[in-house]
Structures are given as structure tokens and as C-alpha cells.
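Late entry, written up from scratch paper. The run itself happened at the end of the previous shift, but nothing got recorded in the book at the time, so transcribing now.
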Amino acid sequence: MSETLLQALNLSKSFGETKAVIDLNLDVHAGEIYGLVGPDGAGKTTLIRVLVGAMLPDEGEVTIRGYNMLTESDQAREQLGYLSQRFSLYEDLTVLENLRFFAEVRGFSPTEWRPRIMETLEFVGLVEFVDRRAGQLSGGMKQKLGLATALVHQPILLLLDEPTGGVDPVTRQDFWQLIIRVVAEEGVGVLVSTPYMDEVMRCGRVGMMIGGRLVLEGPPETLRQSLSDHILELRGASITALRRIAAQDGAVKDVQTFGDRLHLRVQEKQADKVMKRLKAQAGKAGVELTQIRRVELQLEDVFMALIAENNLGGDLNEVEGVANG
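Output as recorded:
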């Protein structure tokens, strides 16, 4: 097994009466991309801030490559690269000046930081913009600059908190190619929280976090196969009316909206009967049902089933953390 870079044991963190992280255990290995997904308020950002040492846990401990974050914080942080949700660099400084600042904070001498910075800028594709002020960069370029600052000191572990939020699909694709490259070429371990299920499928392991707890963990394909129920997909002229009809069927466990279609979760033995009844009910109500069929269960379905079981409610389109990019 590859080296364990991050280990969190029995972590808990509360803010007054609000329990943000509850008795959570997690590990990340060298050469691994670990995806963290959960609805808004699940505790993902709080967890990452505890892992990087920005917050102290109420209970539990964090070790980074064997260094205890509480008692050996300097050594632990030397192993880390961190990118937060929001662009937090100095917008009045140029790309080069931002990277120089972070390199010098990390202890690089002038003879050391320049070649390392240029190497990092080459890697993220910002060499041509060394003299541009950070505030004048596009959203995608800002994220690349943020990644560059996280990489400049050659960390062995990256912690990325929704790094592609708010950028276009092409930029997301480019950003992920950089992450995959740094893992493949340098053996870095990555923990990344993401609101996009297509990004989750790029990860070697996924942790689903709900209500401060890690409720499910494993490779994406294994998690996808963990739900024994079947999914029926409905399309029609009025999704709202179809949803109302489907929700009234006692054999339908859950109804979720996926863009212009509905996903219904039912037991396998009930699927054919439910399809027959819904066709009849839609016809009786004068609601156009253009398609009803069985579809392959997706990771989104597993996640929404967990949300339903934890009584959180909400549609896929309404729950930040599972939006399909």
C-alpha cells in the first residue's frame, strides 16, 4: 500500500450547538485523489480547515505524513498545499509577485524561488502572464494561480476546497488535467471537495459527508453498486405534474428532479408495476408522459438516497454539493 499522507482520527468540531464535524475518520495516500462530496452545510469546508490547521478540533487528531498537526504544526504544514474556495491572493500584485511572496514565506532564497516559480508557472500554463496583476486575471486563471501558490513549495499533499466552483466547464477540465498530472508525475496525494459529480468520478475514492459525518466511502464504482434499488426515468411536458403523480405511488421511495427529467427510486420487483401504474395515472390526469424507462443507477442516485434516508430532503438541483456540472 502507498504511503499514508493524511490521517484524521475521531475528529469533531462544533460551533456552539452546531456540530459541524462528528467523530470523523479519514485517510489519504500518496498518488491518490480522494473526493469529498456533500450538501451545503455538511461540514466539508470546516473539515478541510481543521485538516490544514486553520481550526483546532474539539476532539481527535490530524497527522500529515506522520507529523501531528497540533504538536508538530510547522513540520506538518510544510507537507501541505492548500487552495480555499475563494480567491485569496493579492490582487494588486502581479502573478510573479504573488508567487514570490508565497515562496519566500516558505523559506525559499532568491536563488531558489525564481527557477521554482517559473517551473510552476510553466506547469499551470501562466508563464505568459507573469507581469499581469492578479486582479486582472479571469476566474479560471485565478484558480490556476491559486494552484500554483499551493504547488510552489513542492508539497506532498494538496487540500483543495471546491477549487473549480464558478468556472466554466472547459476551465474545469483544464484544472483537473493539472491535478491528474501532478498526481501522476510527482506522486502527490490530493483531497478535493467538489460540487460536481462528474469530478467525483475522476477520484480513486469518494467520501460522502452528510450532517458532519462521513456516511459512505469507497471507489465511485463500488458506491454506485451499493444501492440495491432500481431507477426509473420519466420525461414529459410537465415535470411538476409528473412528480406529483409519481410521489403518490406507494411503491416509489423517492423522486428527484434531474434537469428536464425525474428519477424515481423503486425496488426491483416493483419497477414494472410502477411503470404500468404511472402510465395509467398520467393518462387519466391528462398529463403527457413522453418516456418512462429503467436507467442505470448513477452516483447521484446513491447520494440522493442517502440524503433522503437522513431526512435532509431537497432535489438534486437544489442541494449544493451534488450539482451535475
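The CA atoms of residues 20 and 212 lie 5 Å apart.
(Scratch paper discarded after transcription.)
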